[in-house]
Automatic annotation (TrEMBL):
Organism, scientific name: Hemiselmis andersenii (Cryptophyte alga)
Recorded superkingdom: Eukaryota
Protein name: Type II methyltransferase M.TaqI-like domain-containing protein
Entries under SUPFAM superfamilies matching the protein: S-adenosyl-L-methionine-dependent methyltransferases
Biological processes per GO annotation: DNA modification
InterPro entries for this protein: DNA_Protect_Modify, MethylTrfase_TaqI-like_dom, SAM-dependent_MTases_sf
Domain Type II methyltransferase M.TaqI-like span(s) in chain numbering: 52-132
Record Pfam families: Eco57I
Length: 159
């Protein structure tokens, strides 16, 4: 819980305004207990239903949920039909200001899928700065999963 927040250098944390979104109620309460006093705005709820301002954030960072299921998003956004992990990438880009950075751990299916619809959409919204393929089992000890994952670094277009 809060690996990214806990790893943030104290000097940087003092200069940042941080919003954390956690779908799980217990985990969200734990995040509040750990980081709320230091000014982290912890919002408990589904990412797709959490009210957030578009074009506002400088940085979006996280570990997206993995799965082949889709999000129930009635907003008619172009990424609304994407699988959950790709939905998160699309939504995060909406939230970033032009020139903002996104850094996400995501399923390797984002980059490897035969259908390039998601990659074309992401390329229309952002510049891929770097993609790192993690070794299989990278999360075995901390998350008990053997999933193949990538870290994507994107800069939102328009700056």
């Amino acid at each position: 819980i809060g690996h990214f927040l806990g790893a943030m250098p104290a000097a940087l944390a003092e200069q940042c305004s941080v919003t954390a979104i956690e779908i799980d109620r217990l985990s969200g309460r734990m995040l509040r207990a750990l980081y709320g006093a230091s000014g982290v705005d912890v919002r408990i709820g589904a990412f797709e239903k959490t009210p957030l301002a578009d074009n506002w954030y400088d940085l979006a960072i996280g570990n997206v949920p993995f799965g082949a299921y889709k999000v129930a998003d009635s907003s008619n956004r172009p990424y609304g039909r994407f699988s959950i992990h790709n939905y998160f990438l699309g939504r995060a880009l909406d939230l970033l200001r032009p020139g903002g950075l996104a850094c996400f751990v995501t399923s390797s299916h984002t980059m490897d899928a035969w259908d390039d619809t998601v990659r074309r959409y992401l390329a229309s919204q952002a510049v891929l700065i770097s993609a790192i393929r993690l070794p299989r089992g990278a999360f075995a000890e901390i998350a008990s999963t053997d999933v193949q994952a990538d870290i994507l670094f994107l800069r939102k277009r328009g700056a």
